[in-house]
Amino acid sequence: MAAPILALRGVNKSFGPIDVLHDITLEVHAGEVLCLLGDNGAGKSTLIKLMSGVHQPTNGHIEIDGATITLPTPRAASDKGIATVHQFGGTFPLMSIGRSFFVGVEKTKGWGPFKVYDRKGANDIAVKAVRDFGITRIDDGDRLVGGLSGGERQSLAIARAVHFGARVLILDEPTAALGVKQATHVLRIVNEAKRRGLAVIFITHQVMHAMAVGDHFAVLIRGAVAADFHKGEKTREEITDLMAGGASMASLEAEIEIYMNSHGGHPPPPAA
Ligand SMILES: Nc1ncnc2c1ncn2[C@@H]1O[C@H](COP(=O)(O)OP(=O)(O)O)[C@@H](O)[C@H]1O
Ligand SMILES: [Mg+2]
């Protein structure tokens, strides 16, 4: 197999006396979705901040295409093709779709003092980029980002990252705040990014979402990789249990389901 696009080798991260990540070794390959699973506080966001140049490892190192590198700033990470899309798409609600697409990379026409923002050109490129990802409901680049649904906003941010040459796409809980239909859109786009050969790091709490797109899974518990496995190697129940740190969540879920089936769909009352 080719060298991973991105790898962490024996990475530790401490903030003063607090050890947040312990001896993390993880590889991300082109054309593969790595799902990073773990409970709140497990260290998922800290891990992606190391990959995106926000934090530096305390020990260990990062590799890109097999070569050791440092990512001293978020700019350095994006120059290496590592793009991070935050939960709400990281876009600007009061900006048009075309405008927001080119924030920081303003598309201008003309030259020198006559440079003007090329509204139509920007709109055409942005709308095409999003439509190429299968979001055909977006057809007007003058629409405000704030008028898009959560899933459309995520899609716009992902299409933008891919358009500007991202090789690694990091998605921090992209489906957490979305309804089923919206989440399905985002999952479809994750698959499309993978089909185009990107490496995707997909962070989620939702095992079903992870299983829908993941090729490779890592479960983080209290800052350590508690399990690292590939598609088909574990069942949904096993993954759910792992995420809960061994407590039998899956059997609890099954009990609740049995209760609800025999009680007209009502959940059990809280334990006294
Ligand atoms: N800058 C920081 N300084 C001190 N502790 C931090 C800092 N950032 C995160 N932590 C701690 O690291 C742990 C993991 O946090 P985080 O990476 O946000 O977890 P997750 O994203 O999995 O919920 C938490 O206990 C959090 O309080
Ligand atoms: Mg987090």
Small molecules bound in the structure, each named once: adenosine-5'-diphosphate, magnesium ion
Average pLDDT score = 88
Tell me the number of helical segments per DSSP (H or I, 4 or more residues long): 9
- Strand proportion: 15-25%
Bin the helical content.
Answer: 25-40%
State the shape: globular
Radius of gyration: 21 Å
If strands are numbered along the chain, what order do they take across the biggest sheet? Answer: 6-9-10-3-11-12
**CATH superfamily label of the largest domain:** P-loop containing nucleotide triphosphate hydrolases
Q: What are the secondary-structure elements, in order, as H or E?
A: EEEHEEHEHEEHHEHEHEEHH
Low-confidence stretches: none
The CATH topology name of the largest domain reads: Rossmann fold
CATH class of the largest domain: Alpha Beta
How would you describe what is shown here?
With 272 residues, the protein is of the alpha/beta class. The chain folds into two domains: 229 residues, P-loop containing nucleotide triphosphate hydrolases (Rossmann fold, 3-Layer(aba) Sandwich); 30 residues, no CATH class. It is 33% helix and 25% strand. It has nine helices and twelve strands. The strands form three sheets. A six-stranded mixed sheet has the order 6-9-10-3-11-12, sandwiched between helices. A four-stranded antiparallel sheet has the order 2-1-4-5, with helices on one face. The longest helix is centred in the C-terminal third of the chain and has 16 residues. It is globular, with a radius of gyration of 21 Å. The termini are far apart. The mean pLDDT is 88.
